[in-house]
Design a protein that fits this description.
Structural class: mainly beta
Oligomer: single chain
Helix content: 10-25%
Number of helices: 4
Distance between the termini: 30 Å
Order of helices and strands: EEEEEEEEEEEEEEHEEHHEEEEEHE
Largest sheet: 7 strands, antiparallel
Strand content: 35-45%
Number of strands: 22
Length: 261
Amino acid sequence: MSILKYSVVKLLEAPNALSPTVTEGKMGESVTILKEHGDWLEIKTDWDNYPGFVPKEAVANHEWQVENPLITASLASLVYLEAKVQSPILQRLPIGIRLKLLEPSDRWFKIQLPEGTVGYIQKGDTVLEEAFQFASLPKLRASLVAWALKFNKAVPYVWGGTSSFGIDCSGFVQHLYRLHNLPLERDASEQGNGKYLVNIQRGDILPGDLIFFKGFSHVGMAISHFDFIHATTDTKPMVQISQVDDPHWVTQTIQYSRYKF
């Protein structure tokens, strides 16, 4: 098995550093190597079967499976060489990276990263895996909204992005669901026509439902019956909240969908 070594790894359309990004993978994510191309690898992300090209140096040939992992919970979590903020910074991690806890304390956790580095992270930048496990659907919906709001007006729109460093519309909703261990396809067109959703009516919208727009070119997630959050380039390129019935968006809406929880 192989995993990605860096905090965020761009998968490119071709084995060329100037090629467009098709998606991103994150540290510790398992991938399948399809073919070698000189200093490049053609890979497929195991989570959503998305292909692309990455430099060989971005992939490590080992497994990363941790029982009861810590999960990074801040838009940018810093890993230090020592348990103090004056220490050199080893890594800057986005939300959702799974870490191995070596030694806990009141403020600092000694941890191991998927690629083997040992360092220290502040307790407040992490949550336990149980933070994404819920016994009731209303609590799950509330959690989807709470994590989505962390991104609001704080994360830029980035084509092909899937992380809290920068994200696109379908990467955003996929990331929110993935945090809660719910699979979802990568692209908006695949999501809207995929196997995980069922269509609903406008009047039935609840937090966590998805809204698709013209030609499945855009997607957002409802955070209430009246508002949705999305990564968009409209007005300002960033994650932001819009109104479900806003004339600009309602005329482009083609589908309201609900996850088959």
